Amino acid sequence: MSNPPKIAWIGLGIMGSPMSENLIKAGYPVTGFTLEQPKLDRLAAAGGTVAGSVAEAVRDADVIVTMVPASPQVEAIAYGADGILENARSGALLIDMSSITPQTSVGLAANAAEKGIRVLDAPVSGGEAGAVEAVLSIMVGGERADFDEARPLFDALGKTIVLCGPHGSGQTVKAANQLIVAVNIQACAEAVVFLEKSGVDLAAALEVLGGGLAGSTVLARKKDNFLNRDFKPGFRIDLHHKDMGIVTDAARAVGAALPVGAVVAQLVASLRAQGDGGLDHSALLRSVERLSGDQV
Ligand code: NAD
Fold first, then answer.
1. Helix (H, G, I), strand (E, B) or coil at 115
2. Catalytic residue chosen out of the listed positions 6, 39, 115, 174
3. What's the DSSP call for residue 6?
4. What is the structure's pLDDT at 216?
């Protein structure tokens, strides 16, 4: 790549680390900041530059990517004296890839515009594996010209990349994504408990189910989690709880009923209340097991 844009990457967690490394592999110079030292060491080992603060990371950047847990963290790194809006240069492009409320994205775009900073909301789907393999779905909200400018960067991170509409649209689509994923995991978890209690070979059952209409990316990606009771995240229940809150609020605001989604949101909340918030969302299986009388 001749003269690639300079990237600042804020938030090097389960998703941010492999995604930023894919940009480095694609030839982008990446300067990163996050809260955990081991993640900063990992960035340096991958060929990135470590910054000591948000302000230092973004000062010279052409493009700033944020990948942090939720709306409060996005607002904390965007606003304030050490934040992006005070320290990035006018004309920079801020791409927030975190999953947050659509209203936060709309507000951020308006506030950034006053500083001459352009914003895209660009949440992703595909999980940790999708991040590592650079096959994420990226759902984008914002201006077409900014989307076109960011397209080569998105191509280094994902496979299905779609501009969904104005600011906040990417987040609205991501909220729908999280509704579908949670309901799908819950259905798979119920099938797993039913199959096991029926004495059927679970591995054989999940293999054949995966090839029919019941097959899904969720089943393919989470099959081994179910089989091995391996609930290392992945995507934490805590984060899916946040996302079920986003989708139920957003649906209420537009008068859309989500009867099944509302039940699954309660099951996610209950799992979290039982101390399983740090587990992968495939741990919804534990909730079904408990409801079915198993001691887990
Ligand atoms: P994570 O908790 O693993 O990582 C979040 C990172 O943000 C951490 O490294 C933390 O240090 C950093 N951070 C938080 N506050 C910060 C601050 N003030 N300054 C600098 N860095 C800060 O989370 P994750 O699983 O990588 O998820 C990130 C986002 O992506 C979330 O919005 C999540 O909903 C979304 N997402 C996650 C997955 C997944 O499978 N994990 C899939 C799709 C979307």
1. coil
2. 174
3. P
4. 97
